[in-house]
Amino acid sequence: MFSTFTYKYLSFRRPIRPPHPLPAGIERHFIKTPGGDIEVLHAAPASPSRGDDVTPLFFVHGGMGGAWVWAEYMQYFSARGIPCYAVSMRGHGDSWYPSFLRMCYFTTKRMLADDVVAAVRWAQARERGKEMVLVAHSSGGGLSQSILSQQEVKVKGLVLAGAVPAFGSLGVYMNWFRADPWFSFRMIFHGWHPNSPLSHPALTRRIFFSNELSDAYVNAFQARTSPYESFLWPLGMSYPFADPQRVLGQISSWGRAPQGLMVLYGEVDVIMNKTQMEKLGQFYRTAFSALVGKKKLEAEDREVRALADEAGQTSVGHGVRIGVVPGAGHHLQNDMTWEIGAKKLLDFYDQL
Which domain holds residue 132? Predict the structure, then answer.
């Protein structure tokens, strides 16, 4: 049983270390921003099986993560001929790190969004201006909805993987409190450290993963997480923060593909659970039908139906696909059944 008062996994200092080694087939780049160098990982297609006009995937991590959380997905998709990119925002992965106080109390959602936008534009320039499919997880999913709502980038498709809902995250944090009743007390005894809710591998497993994932994997994951996090990032998404119709308006595949947006979530996710994610899917389905009805989108508004899917339920309709990854927790891209989620994403990608 871990101690409620342990500080073993908490840090108040910038990490001082060389960049982490990379898996096979993935290379690291750094792009210049006004604040510092931002890490972008790139996995080139292993073969030209999809031709020169293939659409790249661009991955955005969530809180305490980094581009590294997408390594398995990047290897999976690049092996199938799809170029992949993943960003580490400031204070994450091997990007530059603000000080503890600057990161926790003065790094805003807007600043983190600037990092994502800079990385997307850099990747688009490398890909000769191609629009990408944006795949965004958790708080990074919330950030990506905000970026599209502000019409800063255009994408070919959008995948919200266990994403903070654009209508606000209060329900998500109520789920977190239910899963961890000592949340608030631990925060106090940890000096209000932002990583307190995930300050031990047992807590990280409870919130992020299924029970079946090995202790060794969870411990290695814990060692890679950011030493501290921005408070203003999640607080900036507590209440509605993105217009669903404006988000959908930044997706370019309407009229050519039956679905331009996918909501993907883990079956045993305790914070972005079925209630929250089905609500998010319906949120965008309602917006899609309204846009088609007003003839602001040239697309067919098809009724919802279930797909034949042996690996968890998937539904399609009203422009939105909703997929469940069986046996996966919140970090569906890293859990035991991550490959099932990758296959569902590939099915969505192929219909674009």
Answer: 27-169+229-350
